[in-house]
């Protein structure tokens, strides 16, 4: 069984050949997935009304949904409508990522929700189960948690080092899965 890679409205997903896409993932429309990125089982990435970009080495873990807002008078690619996910980002299992920006090295915990226009800077962390409401900004070194999410504290250097190791680990794991034809 192969992942569903679907054209929508003339846009076909562009996936780097070194990326791992799990067999039960669904990728639709204007989506670009970078080198060594890995999209795990049960993920849905819908670029069906605007653009969705996933950077190199990023891991989107099992059951996550990534979507965006449809094009309107702001035009294709407008902030708050597109979804930009940088390099070496970690997105935990069953997260909801919607029309936001996750900069290089950002971390989103399991079952977290990041809403329209929000930005998670590199080195910023959204805790498991958090709801990051529209247009909020998580800065480098900050941990946001709760529903709605708010700044809880600064991350320690050790915590930042630990979560920065997650993306490379998943890139290696994805390469192993790809090599085994899974």
From TrEMBL:
SUPFAM superfamilies: Trimeric LpxA-like enzymes (SSF51161). This is Gamma carbonic anhydrase family protein. It comes from Hypericibacter terrae. The lineage of its organism: Bacteria, Pseudomonadati, Pseudomonadota, Alphaproteobacteria, Rhodospirillales.
């Amino acid at each position: 069984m192969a992942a569903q890679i679907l054209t929508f409205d003339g846009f076909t997903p562009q996936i780097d050949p070194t990326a791992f896409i799990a067999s039960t993932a669904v990728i639709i429309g204007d989506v670009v997935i970078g080198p060594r990125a890995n999209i795990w089982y049960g993920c849905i990435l819908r670029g069906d009304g605007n653009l969705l970009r996933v950077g190199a080495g990023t891991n989107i873990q099992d059951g996550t949904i990534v979507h965006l807002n449809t094009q309107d008078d702001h035009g294709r690619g407008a902030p708050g409508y597109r979804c930009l996910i940088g390099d070496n980002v970690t997105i935990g299992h069953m997260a909801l990522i919607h029309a936001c920006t996750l900069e290089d090295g950002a971390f989103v915990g399991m079952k977290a929700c990041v809403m329209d226009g929000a930005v998670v800077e590199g080195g910023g962390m959204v805790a498991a189960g958090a709801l990051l409401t529209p247009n909020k900004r998580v800065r480098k070194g900050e941990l946001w948690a709760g529903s709605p999410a708010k700044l809880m504290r600064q991350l320690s250097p050790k915590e930042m080092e630990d979560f920065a190791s997650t993306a490379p680990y998943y890139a290696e794991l994805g390469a192993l899965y790809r090599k085994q034809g899974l």
